[in-house]
Amino acid sequence: MTTVQKMSQLYAPTLKEDPGEAELASHRLLLRAGMIRKVAAGVYDYLPLAWRSIRKIEAVVRDEMESIGAQELRLPAMQPAELWHQSHRWDDYGPELMRFTDRHEREFCLGPTHEEVVTSLVRNELRSYKQLPVTLYQIQTKYRDEIRPRFGLLRGREFIMKDAYSFNATKESLQESYDEEGVAYERICDRLGIDWRAVDADSGQIGGKVSIEFMALAESGEASLLYCDCGYASDDEAATAGVHVEACGDHLEKVETPRMGTIAELAEFMGVPECATVKALLGKDADGVTTLIFVPGDHDLNDIKISHVVVGFEMLTDDEIGERGFVKGFIGPVDVPAGVHVIADISLRQSGHWLVGANERDYHFKGAQVGRDFPEPEWADVITARIGDRCPVCGKPLQGARGIEIGQIFQLGTKYSEAMGAAFTDEDGVDKPLLMGCYGIGVSRTLASIVEQGNDENGIVWPVCVAPFEVAVLPLSVGDDLVDPMATKIAAALAAAGVETVLDDRDERAGVKFNDADLYGWPYQVIVGKRGATAGEVELKVRATNERIIIAADEVAATLAGLVAEQRARFTHEAALGMQAARRA
Ligand code: ATP
Ligand code: MG
Questions:
Q1: Count of CA atoms in the C-beta half-sphere (13 A) of 149
Q2: Which atom of ligand 1 is closest in space to residue 163's alpha carbon?
Q3: Is there a common fold for 5-11+461-568 and 48-214+407-453?
Q4: Rounded to an integer, what is the distance from CA 247 to the centroid of its chain?
Q5: How far is the CA of 442 from the centre of ligand 1 (A)?
Q6: Can you give the residue ranges of every domain in the chain?
Q7: Element housing 134 (H / E)
Q8: Which of 219, 247, 321, 323 could form a disulfide with 353 if both were Cys (CB 3.0 to 4.6 A apart)?
């Protein structure tokens, strides 16, 4: 049943001032509009308005999960360490895992994710290929002791996530479950009115696309993405782009480069672009072996990519660089001491002659040639791609955007099933580890992302499909014997038509009601004033467009019911299927 929510009773205390700690619009506005309250760093109360929107997001997520046959269940947040020892993640996960001990000195954690628990659930029951595939999901609270919880709901330590896990017998079946989750995620994004992009989240080195991130586009986003008109899109961390490098010199020549210890200084001093220089980085692997890495001067070493190439990679400190016989700012490949592992980014293969440090203070080499002046290094993709690098699909320059990761899908393979002994008997009678995929969407982060994309100087601008209420009725003179009954009647008619309605029955000035209405972001606002009421008219304001129309008081409820129905229809499963088909065409 839809009833009218009176503002006088609504628990949504607004803040007059901008909260000091809030840097981003979503954080500031959710606090100011009385939707969330901070309890501790990264831990929030969700007040009634936020909770209504969260429930709407969850409903869309559930609907799309059911549409692909995923089954909802509920796993515990409290998880025994024993399971995490079996997957080896008790040691690998690090300080983000919230650990505690019970009264019997048994160790537990609060789940940051549920691969361990779900694998342990199915390992004794999913025993035959005939039971597969199965996808299980839950919407639940997750805990991660983030090093820097910030931006409100965008990065909490306690947050809401939908996590799904598929169990498959074959690679093809896993690919199918993964693809289905992907298209369900597309529809979830569309149905929530999000401006989004799906990006490759792995560099494809493992073969095939095994992970996609769903990004809400936002200037304030922490992720930077690279994309191309041809449809290619990737997290810049994962992108393998065509990189332009230039050679410098042709024969080995030592040049005095006094105090030119940075790439910018060196390039300027030599009168060459930065892409004609080669930058050296020194680190060590897990065994302490010195690892020397060369990358194009205008690109950065990528932490994730290098960690795939060198186990336990860590940069050396300035002191360690000296102790290992190198001169910071002048490191090069010529006459490197024995026992040093030398790696160069694959892009440098195209440059026959490098401008690079000479391993001597204040000197560089130009024209240093691979194979002639120094041994061929190990080639690997180890840099972060940049705007302007070439698209790996079509070769056009890549463009850049920023985004907030709202979801990620991942093919896990047999990582957990092997470690935890989850096997099934296949058609051929052979026992095999289950193939798994995992699929997460941050529900609370999605709410914040929607606000991040929908706001103006006055407050939140909701897509109607996630707004806490669809319509607000604002009587401007409370107690007036014309205005009050008219507003109450309109609100009742709206509720009777199934429209989620608030009635601002507070004895407040018109200005206060207008400001609050825009701060809360009510999509449609019906303004009932004394003069209009006398003439049988009200004003209808559309928050998103700021459009205002005068409309007969006895027509407004029906008109709004129509507008709301239109909006709801734009965000259904069927509408999302249509959008998907249009995109594929
Ligand atoms: P990030 O890189 O932003 O820390 P993640 O890649 O570690 O996120 P996943 O493990 O892929 O996150 O979790 C699935 C989803 O859960 C994310 O896409 C995101 O929407 C959400 N999420 C992850 N960490 C947080 C957090 N600290 N606060 C709110 N939502 C989060
Ligand atoms: Mg992720």
A1: 19
A2: 14
A3: no
A4: 38
A5: 6
A6: 5-11+461-568, 48-214+407-453, 253-380
A7: strand 134-143
A8: 247
Q: Which atom of ligand 1 is nearest to the CA of 442?
A: 20
Cα 171 to ligand 1 centroid, rounded to whole Å:
26
Q: Is the CB of 146 under 6 A from ligand 1?
A: yes
- Give CATH superfamily name and number for 253-380: YbaK/aminoacyl-tRNA synthetase-associated domain (3.90.960.10)
pLDDT score at 204 = 46
Give me 488's structure tokens.
């109450």
The CATH classification of domain 48-214+407-453, taken from the options 3.40.50.720, 3.40.630.40, 3.60.10.10, 3.30.930.10: 3.30.930.10
pTM score above 0.70:
yes
Calpha distance 309→415 (Å, rounded): 19
Q: Ligand 1 atom 14: the closest Cα is on which residue?
A: 440
How far apart are alpha carbons 104 and 154 in whole angstroms? 36
Which candidate, 556, 509, 508, 517, places its Cα nearest to that of 536?
A: 556
Task: Dump pLDDT digits (tens) for 262-282.
Answer: 899 999 999 999 999 999 999
CB 196 less than 6 A from any atom of ligand 1: no
Give the torsion sign (CA, 227, 228, 233, 235): negative
Distance from the Cα of residue 151 to its chain's centroid: 13
* pLDDT tens-digit map of 346-403: 999 988 899 999 999 999 999 999 999 999 999 999 999 999 999 989 999 999 999 9
Q: What is the pLDDT of residues 58-98, one digit of tens each?
A: 999 999 999 999 999 999 999 999 999 999 999 999 999 99
Which protein residue has the closest C-alpha to ligand 1 atom 1? 405
3-class SS of residue 404: strand
Name 525's Cβ contacts closer than 8 Å, sequence gap at least 6. 471, 472, 473, 474, 517, 540, 541, 543
Q: Is 144 in the pocket of ligand 1 (CB under 6 A)?
A: yes
**Superfamily covering domain 5-11+461-568:** Anticodon-binding domain (3.40.50.800)
Q: Which of 113, 236, 445 to mutate to test the pocket of ligand 1 (most atoms within 8 A of CB)?
A: 445
> Ligand 1 pocket, 408 CB below 6 A?
yes
Q: Minimal CA–CA distance to 406: which of 237, 153, 167?
A: 153
Question: Which of 161, 192, 237 gets mutated to test ligand 1 (max ligand atoms within 8 A of its CB)?
Answer: 161
Ligand having the closest approach to the CA of 142: 1
pLDDT of residue 518: 98
Nearest to 487 by CA among 500, 473, 472: 473
Residue 509, classed as helix, strand or coil, is: coil
Q: Which residues of 83-99 are buried (b: 16+ CB within 10 A; e: fewer)?
A: bbebbebbeebeeebbe
- Does residue 403's CB lie within 6 angstroms of at least one atom of ligand 1? no
Q: How many CB atoms lie within 10 A of CB 101?
A: 10
